[in-house]
Structures are given as C-alpha cells and as structure tokens.
Amino acid sequence: MQYDPDIHHRRSIRLKGWDYSSAGAYSVTICAKYRECLLGNITGSDMCLNEYGNIAADCWQDLPKHYAHIELDAFIIMPNHVHGIIVVGAGFKPAFFSNPDGKINAECKYRAGLKPAPTYAQHGLSEIVRAYKTFSTRYINKIRNASGIPVWQRNFYEHIIRNEQELDAIRTYIKDNPSKWTWDEENPNIKGTAN
After folding, report:
1. Reduced to 3 states, what is the DSSP secondary structure of residue 42?
2. What pTM does this model have?
3. For residues 62 and 50, is the Cβ–Cβ distance under 8 A?
4. Greater pLDDT, 128 or 185
5. Helix, strand, or coil here: 11?
6. DSSP labels for 93-130?
7. Structural domain spans, the chain
8. What is the mean pLDDT of residues 24-32?
C-alpha cells in the first residue's frame, strides 16, 4: 500500500503550543513494542525485574548524567511499560526514590557510551525519552543478541503536571501500579475481558 498522508498519519498527543523543554514536571508512560512483557513479572503485588528490566531501570536512573537540567522523581518498571516523572529545569522538588528491590543505585552499569549532554543545552521531553529508548534498547538487544529489533513502541504518553496535588496523585499511582496489575489495561492477560 502506498503512503497516503490523509490516511497514514500519527496524530500528536502533545499539547499544542507547549514548549516541552520548559521547566516543569512531566509524567511519562513508555510501552514495550506490542506490549510484550519482557521486563519482568508481577509476583503478588511486587514487580520482579528480570535482566532486561534491570537494564531499563539503570538506563532511566542514568538520564540525569546525560541531561544535567533534569531530575527524576518516582518511577516504576512494569512487565511491559515504564511510568516515571521527569522534572525539567526548575520545577517541583523530586521525591525520594528507590529501586523496586529497595536499594539505591549509586552507579549505573549500563552506560550509553556517549558523553553527557552539555549543561547549556535544554533538551525537550521528546529528546530525553528518545535517548532513554535508544540507550535501553541498545543494551537489551546486546544481551538478547537481536540488533536492530525495537524494544519500545514508537510514541509515548505524557502528561504535564500542573500542581502539587497532581504530583502526589501520580506518585501514588506509580507506587501502587504493581498491586493493580491484575486490572491494568496494559496487562495482556486481561485483553478482551471486561474490566
């Protein structure tokens, strides 16, 4: 089938006119390609990361080393998606975060192999998410010996966090996400059933 711009186009979910490199807090959700559960599994109400999930977590925590103008807030790696809050520039004060295993990662063992972005560059949210997908895909594919195979869906969901109440609600949603996996629309085991 030949490309037809009237039929084959992706509608932007971004807020028209908003500068996504401007200071603020953003909630993002990044889904695995075909929503494949390749990052681990839920046991009870706990997320148990596998090797790919650990790479995804390490690459997420490594982002501020490449983008000095961001801070990371709450995040969770789920079996087939990632939820996280990225604070760009001066914005909300980030919350304390620990990995699902309760430990703080002082040093990421999966490096992008690139120099951190210069501190004078104020990259937007799309660039930061693109870098995350690129870094994590590179290391996951190296381990699964699958060069060039996509790990993530092409787009991502974002939400501009407008106040402290929203920030607290999203932090709670992220923290509680594993315990709600049974009813999560991203859970492939409930597709085609009534929620």
Report:
1. strand
2. 0.76
3. no
4. 128
5. coil
6. PPPP---TTS---SS-SS--SSPPPPTT----HHHHHH
7. 24-178
8. 94
Angstrom distance (rounded) from CA 107 to CA 113: 14
C-beta of residue 60 within 8 angstroms of C-beta of residue 110: no
Q: Which tokens hold the place of 61?
A: 């925590």
Beta carbons of 82 and 128 less than 8 angstroms apart: no
Q: What is the pLDDT of residue 33?
A: 96
Q: What is the pLDDT of residue 22?
A: 61
- Give exposure, 120-151, as e/b (b: 16+ Cβ within 10 Å): eebbbbeebbebbbebbbbbbbeeeeeeeeeb
- For the 24-178 domain, the top CATH level (class) is alpha beta
DSSP helix/strand/coil, 36:
coil
pLDDT computed for residue 102 by the predictor: 40
- The answer to whether residue 81 scores a pLDDT higher than 90 is yes
Amino acid residing at 94: P
CA distance 13 to 23: 19
